[in-house]
Write a structure and sequence with these properties.
Layout lengths: L6 E3 L5 E7 L12 E9 L5 H23 L8 H14 L14 H10 L7 H8 L3 H9 L6 H12 L3 H4 L8 H8 L6 H17 L8 H18 L4 H22 L23 H11 L5 H15 L3 H4 L7 E2 L6 E4 L10 E4 L4 H17 L2 H16 L6 H14 L4 H8 L10 H4 L3 H5 L2 H13 L1 H4 L13
Antiparallel strand pairs: 1-2, 2-3, 4-5, 5-6
């Protein structure tokens, strides 16, 4: 992979650095020619998304360094810039905020100190002095009445943050997200992680990145209200807005609990939206669609295999792409898929009987999985929508319509809501499979009576589609 501009390795190391020359105009009064920033990535593990994230962080540090060279007046810098500069100062020295909050002390010596009112052993501040010795120069400068530069403030803040509980806390709203993401295991370089992080960034852009203070709670609530108003104006549904707010509110509550900010975060009221009419594939179009799918070949067959699974299992491409070989049993008496990977909810973990296009799916699903895992969600949606249009002539159809159609088929063919919810993975504790059952081997699972009954229910759901392709459906003769 060709490395982006300013990114390179140093010497024989395979670790990547961001290196960029300072502007020529600064060289008259700044000794260094080149800014260097480790990206904490090896060449072998550098994906485009990881590189983009690391470069953005390095570029931000570069711009701040230039500003610090050009202007030493601390009043020219905001709270977020000071916080960023302190973080960078600590990073370069492999230090972290609060690392000297609790240091080992001899209890007997501590008791003697209390009695004599005299320090007899190293305290928290002494450990900070050892790693940031230039803090003494800042103190001397202050005692002489000299004005402190921005660099002096950074040094002082960094020194204090090592052992002062209040200073160890995040200083600005923007600094809260990284802690929350780490605690929840959110990979901010992944597609899903970026999507969640962008919601936080959208809210922060509306609320404003301010220094955390006594007035911050009102600022947070004003920002949440502004977020809702903006999304409503953009036509986003109430349910979607509430879902977007989940991680934003959770992050703020997590920060309040961890750092004892004593915030009581109230979720804003979100107007209820009028439910949109869900587009369902007509029965005549379903017949056209199934017939078209099983006749496709080449790369289009991968898309067709996905559509057949979406139609009869109410599955989404994101679920299909996570299927693994050991969770496929398409050649047995009761062909099935075991959906137990990462899903939105535990309710989505389920067994999906395959009664339509069994042989076609078995042949083309491996390639379909390769396609889903090598392209983007937008590409999936585009290809699926295109196939639906070519097969039916209806340009209103999208992949979600298959899920709506599954529900409509259940209702029109008199299938019990419990069976429908079990196959589709709709919520409800009384339906679906237990965690223990999902851990059975597929061979054992296929022998259970409940799975055999699900096949019967699935045949009933799709009875209007089975007759035209009777040669390629499953016949269940036992309970």
């Amino acid at each position: 992979m060709k490395l982006p501009r300013y990114v390179r390795t140093i010497g024989n190391s395979d670790r990547l650095h961001y290196q960029r020359d300072y502007p020529t105009k600064l060289r008259l009064y700044f000794p260094k020619k080149t800014f260097s920033y480790p990206l904490d990535l090896k060449v072998s593990e550098a994906t485009e998304s990881k590189l983009a994230k690391a470069i953005a962080r390095a570029s931000e540090a570069y711009e701040l360094q230039i500003k610090m060279i050009e202007n030493s007046d601390p009043d020219a810098f905001g709270a977020s810039e000071l916080d960023m500069a302190v973080t960078e100062f600590l990073r370069k020295r492999q230090l972290s905020r609060g690392q000297h909050l609790k240091v080992a002390k001899d209890l007997d010596v501590s008791a003697e100190e209390e009695r004599l009112k005299q320090q007899l052993q190293a305290h928290e501040e002494d450990y900070s002095d050892m790693v940031i010795p230039e803090f003494d120069d800042v103190v001397d400068k202050y005692n002489r009445g000299e004005k402190l530069t921005f660099e002096d403030r950074v040094t002082a803040e960094a020194w204090t943050s090592l052992h002062n509980r209040a200073k160890a806390k995040p200083k600005t709203l923007s600094s809260l997200w990284s802690d929350y993401a780490a605690s929840k295991g959110i990979d901010t370089s992944s597609r899903e992680g970026k999507r969640i992080t962008n919601r936080w960034k959208r809210w922060l852009a509306m609320a404003g990145n301010v220094a955390i203070s006594n007035a911050t709670l009102d600022h947070i609530h004003d920002g949440l209200d502004a977020y809702v108003a903006n999304r409503v104006a953009e036509g986003v549904s109430g349910a979607s807005i509430r879902r977007e707010l989940n991680d934003i509110v959770a992050c703020l509550r997590y920060a309040s609990k961890r750092y004892r900010f004593s915030w009581v975060i109230e979720r804003p009221d979100v107007p209820k939206s009028k439910p949109k009419q869900r587009v369902v594939i007509k029965r005549s179009e379903q017949l056209q669609l199934v017939d078209y799918c099983v006749s496709t070949s080449g790369s289009e067959a991968s898309v067709a295999a996905c559509v057949l699974l979406m139609l009869q299992g109410a599955m989404m491409p994101s679920e299909i792409k996570r299927l693994t070989p050991e969770r496929l049993r398409l050649s047995g008496e009761l062909p099935l898929l075991l959906v137990d990977g990462e899903t939105k909810t535990n309710a989505r973990k389920r067994v999906v009987p395959i009664v339509l296009g069994v042989e076609f799916i078995a042949e083309h699903l491996p390639k379909a999985l390769e396609w889903l895992n090598s392209t983007t969600e937008s590409n999936h949606s585009h290809k699926i929508k295109k196939l639906l249009y070519v097969a039916t002539g209806n340009d209103r159809l999208t992949g979600h319509c298959c899920r709506h159609t599954f529900k409509a088929n259940c209702d029109s063919n008199g299938v019990s809501p419990t069976a429908a919810a079990t196959i589709a993975g709709w919520s409800g504790r009384e339906v679906g499979f237990s965690e223990n059952m999902l851990n059975y081997g597929t061979d054992s699972l296929a022998q259970t009576e409940v799975v055999a009954n699900l096949f019967k229910e699935s045949q009933k759901i799709h009875q209007h589609l089975l007759k035209p392709i009777a040669a390629n459906v499953v016949d269940i003769k036992r309970a």
